[in-house]
Amino acid sequence: QVQLVESGGGLVQAGGSLRVSCAASGGIRVLNNMGWYRQAPGNQRELVAQISSTMRTEYADSVKGRFTISRDNTKKMVYLQMNNMKPEDTATYFCHAIVETPATPRGFGMPFWGKGTLVTVSS
Fold it and tell me: How far, in Å, CA of 12 to CA of 109, rounded?
């Protein structure tokens, strides 16, 4: 069973920095796209950043220039470095990955989610 476990959330002041991490484990044959989504109370879950297995990255306009996504394929980890944080970055951050398992056809991955880590930015 594939698991994604986030860590590193917490409270930070506006203008500060925080890094969240996500560890993938379980029956993983291929780890494809990995990414971070966030959801603030009353809002829909939105894409923050994603990174492909070939390290191509994509960012939401609201975080470009402030957040950096990276991954370590050997450790099956994905990271989100958040700088110059703003109160509107306050949300629960969820790790997401597209994973090929021994049970899926080759070339086809399934989406998996972590349980989330809360990030609060005070003004």
Answer: 35
**How far apart are the C-alpha atoms of 19 and 6, rounded to whole Å?**
11
Note the pLDDT tens digit of each residue in 38-52: 999 999 999 999 999
Residue 104's alpha-carbon distances to 52, 65, 118, in angstroms, are 19, 36, 32
Look at the chain and count its residues.
Answer: 123
State yes or no: pLDDT of 86 exceeds 90: yes
Q: How far is CA 20 from CA 7, 30, 37, 57, 93, in A?
A: 6, 22, 12, 17, 8
Residues 6+ apart with CB under 8 A from 16: 85, 121
What distance in Å separates the CA atoms of residue 77 and residue 4, rounded to the nearest whole number? 9
Q: pLDDT tens across 19-31, in order?
A: 999 999 999 999 9
